[in-house]
Design brief:
With 377 residues, the protein is of the alpha+beta class. 18% of the residues lie in helices and 47% in strands. The chain has 2 helices and 28 strands. Helix 1 (2-33) runs antiparallel to helix 2 (339-373).
Amino acid sequence: MKKKILLAVAIILPICIITTLGITNYYNSIVSQLWYRTAKIGHFEITEEKSYSMQISGDLAYIGVHTGLKIINITDPANPTLIGQYNKSWQVRDVFIFDSIAYLATYTKIEILNISVLSEPRKIGEFNCSGFTRGIYISKNLAYVASSSGGLEIFNVTNSNNPIKLGQIYGDWTSYSLLNNGNFSYIADNIDGLGVFNITDPTNPTLLGRYHEYGYGLYSFIISAMGVYYSDNVIYLADSIYGLLFVNVSDPLNLTEIGRISDAGRVRAVHISDNLAFVADYMDGLEIIDISNLESTRIVGKYRSRRKTMDVYVSGNIVYLIDEIGLDIIEITKGFGDNYHWEQLNEKLNPIFTFIIAFSIISAVVGIYIYISKKDF
């Protein structure tokens, strides 16, 4: 009898140990991929009009909305409060704050506001552009504007009452957003992808390189490249079709793709902090992506917003996310446990648990069979 029991144990125990070790390793690999928790700690509702864009400066959030600009005090993230607004614009697609001046990309022009008195923003100038303005970047006394059909336009804004156009290079399609780094301007240019421009001479900007190998074909009529972020010779290109792309721009004449993560969804904007990319996914809210290895990236956290997500900004462990109806302030902490992560975990572990149960039953049946059938040892 003892020999029969020992035989059954000798067969079943090693199999159970090996199975347990395998499941433990699999479980740990999943846990390591879901190691950021997201928790909303504050919200500012903008229900009467649509939100489009945002810039954070110090303890203030400047939000471009359908009719103008909202200025939100975010000193206490749990209780953001409105301290000023300007309601005489139209579809503010981008906001740039420089000193005590706010530049608003609105419809077909740029409006210039004096915000030295936050409670009373005051318009002090404006200038027209060649198309629908989508993005603006200010450097010293120059304004760089991305607009539909207008491409890249450069203005001298030393005198806010009389901005002077210096130069322009037309785009083939709709320019959506831009940022500058040194002598280069990087533009997310819809189906034309990423454009890199030499702006050494503001009166004569020139196209150096373009990355658009993914932008033509079946989806060529759909808005594609929409946002850009520069860090260490890499452009993180937010794409509404192909997710988040990583483009090496160390040689502007030879732009090359390092990698991409298509699981990021319909990306509108991206902000980089340390080795993490924080993505504003138009349909799914916030996605946090580990970019420590650009050739092998993975999603490590999520937050679902209530409406279509428009823009994102990160400061420390706080994420500012705007959707169509307001601002969400989200705290990021290491570890997992929120509902979304548990749903992901369960989806991956349920097949394993099913296997464990089936394997245990089969093992028990085999053990009993051996125990009954063996008469001599």
